[in-house]
Write a structure and sequence with these properties.
Radius of gyration of chain B: 21 Å
Strand content of chain A: 5-15%
Number of strands of chain A: 10
Distance between the termini of chain B: 58 Å
Strand order of the largest sheet of chain A: 1-10-7-4-2-3
Number of helices of chain A: 23
Oligomer: heterodimer
Strand content of chain B: 15-25%
Radius of gyration of chain A: 26 Å
Helix content of chain B: 25-40%
Structural class of chain A: alpha/beta
Distance between the termini of chain A: 67 Å
Number of strands of chain B: 12
Largest interface: A-B, 101 and 80 residues
Number of helices of chain B: 7
Helix content of chain A: 40-55%
Structural class of chain B: alpha/beta
Shape of chain A: elongated
């Protein structure tokens, strides 16, 4: 099955037309930006913290194989089963095997972007296992049969009336109400039964500490703790880049994560899991499975510049500050990860040939780089990927796939035009004379569709300088 | 070799070929991660915890070793708590049971989480409130630190709609870095460490904050001097 490559143009056209989406985004992104700014009000402190975060993440990546082995060793000693998966298919199979081994028919899920990357929910459904999303945002979009549109607040694109309608239609015995407290109570009631009965819980991992074999999870709702504590079996899925070396690395990264994501000093719950139920404990899972997923990350690691992509702690700050994301929203990016991080991660995961158009979803304004808590130079990486897409060094899948003879000819022509004074003069004068006719030319359509063609002067700047001289000569 | 072991070999071999350079810990990192000298006396720390927790709708009561039973009674009455769950086989359970014998908690039935969750689930989901001790707290963000163990189950502070926590005032740390540097967890970390900074909440619908989602709706902290 060949899918058409991702088209930014198409997606932008579609989503810009959605007035409600644009209103929702404008309001909510502004709110998240303000919250973050209010918390990080001391610039010097913030800068030190960001440098620390960058250093911790870079050090982890530079020791990745050792840390992963140490993590496995510690986890295993503590009773956690560690599995390795090269591809998302492998990861899905591991999860399925655990579920089927226990004869379970459903699994309650905490929010996990890696599980979205795995397309785990549709995989499970194809194998007659029911995935039950328990994070409120994920719960909402699951009812709507949609994908998350934001890394941290998945249902940010939905209004209360849409959610009211959804609950009323899809949850049995539910009246229509737009009151947010009531909507909340409906979700709570609906999910409480599921928490009580679940045999298997699945979660992501915000960071895994190699030193002690500890999985750290952050949340506000309590659904994560429900998924990782109540059922007999807990499955944790994790991208292999999420490991950190030491316990002391956790507090600064948590500060950066919660502060950048929602402007919180700390989330309601920080859950640090090191072992399943110990002898004498009354509760806790009897089995914990950690699935370590590669899915091209080891390839990304190999390139020293692109490796910085893996520093990401999935805070979503780059999304909230991106002038493109805040206008088109997450679904317009077509894949699991939206926003600036999506523009650099997706082409490296899915190939520049299929998804390379994403690298155009940026004006290189640098807002994302300025707010990234671990100082990923996203615009530099976008530029690198743009280069790779034209004349790749084979570092990235699909490198060179976007080079085109037409574009190369245009640049060649441009070079000639600017090197020859005679040619240049001719073109300048012709452009000035024929401006009103040129503007209708089809190849200028993408400019003239939303902008007026400038008036080309009969006399070039160079000519005028020659005639009049420059004031301070 | 099964598939997972095979994958592990492949993954680690790819990672090892990645031209990685050792990165020295940044100077600033060393500075920032040095144990901060203990700043702020106990009163300041109590004040900080109270301020941070109350800002997120927790209830904080400052009490003493002599008066906490009566303060707890007030809390139970004020919130109409008819059934209170506590851990089992620890000092707290003993003290509470003793208080009951002495006539405290007239309107509240005290139950201990004595059996495994498999047989205890109905009660767990049915009680009005649970009471636990704590490992300590963090002044900087107000977080309560719990280390569930064989006496106090993990779900005590999760399932019942009200969570009452006892906090000894002299176990309040300055910040999380201080905890990591001094708790000795590098060598032996508890099976589950929880930082609890308020009642459960969400802003997933239009970013409007609502309290009381899946975790407890109310968090009440009794700080004991």
């Amino acid at each position: 099955m060949t899918e058409k490559p991702y088209s930014l143009q198409k997606n932008v056209s579609t989503f810009l037309k959605n007035g409600q989406l644009r209103n929702n985004l404008r309001f909510s992104m502004e709110s998240l930006r303000q919250k973050r700014a209010a918390l990080f009000d001391n610039k010097t402190e913030l800068e030190s913290l960001r440098e620390l975060g960058q250093s911790i993440r870079q050090r982890s990546l530079n020791q990745l194989p050792e840390l992963l082995e140490q993590l496995e060793k510690k986890c295993t000693a503590n009773g956690i089963n560690v599995h390795w998966a090269e591809t998302v298919e492998d990861a899905n199979q591991i999860v399925l095997d655990v579920i089927e081994h226990h004869g379970a028919k459903s699994v309650i899920k905490g929010k996990s972007m890696v599980s979205e990357e795995m397309h785990l929910n549709s995989f499970l459904k194809n194998h007659d296992i029911i995935p039950i999303e328990t994070d409120l945002g994920e719960f909402i979009i699951q009812l709507a049969d949609e994908k998350p549109s934001h890394i941290v607040v998945p249902a940010i694109h939905k209004n209360r009336d849409e959610i009211a309608e959804l609950f009323h239609k899809k949850i049995p015995n539910t009246p229509y109400t737009e009151d947010i407290k009531e909507l909340n109570a409906i979700a709570r009631k609906e999910l409480r039964q599921k928490f009580r009965q679940a045999d298997i819980g699945l979660s992501g991992v915000n960071m895994a500490v190699a030193e002690t074999g500890t999985l750290c999870l952050v949340e506000n709702e309590g659904n994560g703790r429900m998924c990782t504590t109540l059922p007999k079996v807990h499955i944790a899925v994790m991208g292999l880049e999420k490991v950190v070396g030491k316990l002391v690395d956790v507090p600064p990264l948590l500060k950066l994560l919660t502060g950048s994501a929602t402007g919180q000093k700390i989330t309601t719950y920080i859950n640090m899991i090191t072992s399943p139920r110990k002898t004498g404990e009354k509760d806790g899972p009897e089995e914990i499975h950690l699935v370590i997923l590669d899915n091209k990350r080891s390839k990304i690691l190999a390139d020293p510049q692109l490796r910085q992509t893996l520093q990401c702690i999935r805070c979503g700050a780059c999304l909230n500050h991106c002038p493109v994301y805040t206008r088109i929203g997450g679904h317009a990016y077509g894949f699991v990860y939206p926003g600036p991080i999506g523009t650099i991660l997706t082409p490296q995961l899915e190939g520049l040939d299929k998804t390379g158009d994403l690298i155009n979803a940026s004006s290189l304004c640098n807002a994302c780089e300025e707010v990234c808590p671990v100082k990923i130079p996203i615009p530099d990486l976008i530029r690198r990927l743009r280069n790779e897409s034209i004349s790749g060094k084979e570092s990235v899948e699909g490198a060179g796939s976007r080079s085109s003879i037409a574009e190369m000819s245009v640049w060649k022509g441009w070079k000639i035009l600017n090197k020859s004074t005679t040619l240049n003069n001719i073109v300048v004068k012709t452009a000035a004379l024929t401006r009103n006719q040129i503007q209708h030319l089809p190849f200028l359509k993408s400019w003239t569709a939303s902008k007026t063609l400038p008036q080309f002067p009969k006399e070039s700047m160079l000519d005028r300088v020659k005639k009049k001289g420059v004031a301070d000569e | 070799m099964n598939r997972s072991e095979n994958s592990k070999v492949n993954i680690l071999s790819r990672l090892s070929r990645a031209n990685l350079e050792p990165v020295n810990r940044l100077e600033t990192q060393e500075k920032l991660q040095q144990t901060q000298p203990v700043t702020g006396n106990i009163d300041l720390r109590i004040e900080q915890v109270q301020k941070m927790q109350e800002a997120v709708n927790s209830e904080v009561v400052i009490s003493t070793t002599d008066t906490w039973i009566s303060d707890l009674t007030d809390i139970l009455n004020n919130h109409g708590i008819k059934r209170l769950l506590c851990g089992s086989g620890n000092t707290l359970e003993h003290d509470l049971k003793q208080a009951v014998i002495n006539g405290a908690f007239e309107h509240t039935e005290l139950l201990a989480y004595e059996s495994t969750i498999e047989t205890f689930k109905t009660t767990l989901f049915d009680v009005d409130a649970a009471i636990t001790g704590s490992f300590g707290a963090i002044a900087e963000n107000g977080a309560l630190i719990l280390c569930p163990d064989t006496h106090e189950a993990r779900t005590l502070s999760l399932v019942p709609p009200i969570h009452i926590a006892l906090l000894a005032a002299d176990t309040i740390y300055g910040d999380f870095d201080e905890v990591m540097a001094t708790a000795g967890w590098q060598n032996q970390i508890p099976a589950n460490v929880l930082l609890i900074s308020g009642p459960s909440k969400t802003a997933d619908i239009e970013l409007v904050l609502t309290h009381g989602v899946h975790g407890p709706k109310k968090l009440i902290i009794l700080i004991i001097r």
